[in-house]
Amino acid sequence: MQKRLAFKMKLYAGKAEEYKIRHDEIWPELAILLKQYAISDYFIFLDEETNTLFASYLINNEGGLKGLSEEPLMKKWWHYMQDIMETNEDASPISIPLKHLFYLE
Known about the structure:
L-rhamnose mutarotase, L-rhamnose mutarotase activity, rhamnose metabolism, 26% strand, four-stranded antiparallel β-sheet, 4 helices, Alpha-Beta Plaits, 30% helix, 105 residues, cytoplasm, EC 5.1.3.32, alpha+beta
């Protein structure tokens, strides 16, 4: 069963354009890796007033995400992005899960 997950992250001021460029040019091998982890329908929005990113995607196996964080390519992407957004010590983005409250089909 698919489940939608959502979270927020934070960009550094003045980095929105660079963030968009990097995602417009997402590494093809990273897109393949995300799909291998059954991630689809992935989108990211920006609140320009606060530099807060809102992201959401569908996943088939939420438990399988733990393995994604161990993938060398994922870690490489995090290091590539850490100069433009708030990150943890391991370079992963500081990601705050959001609680699902409503859905209209």
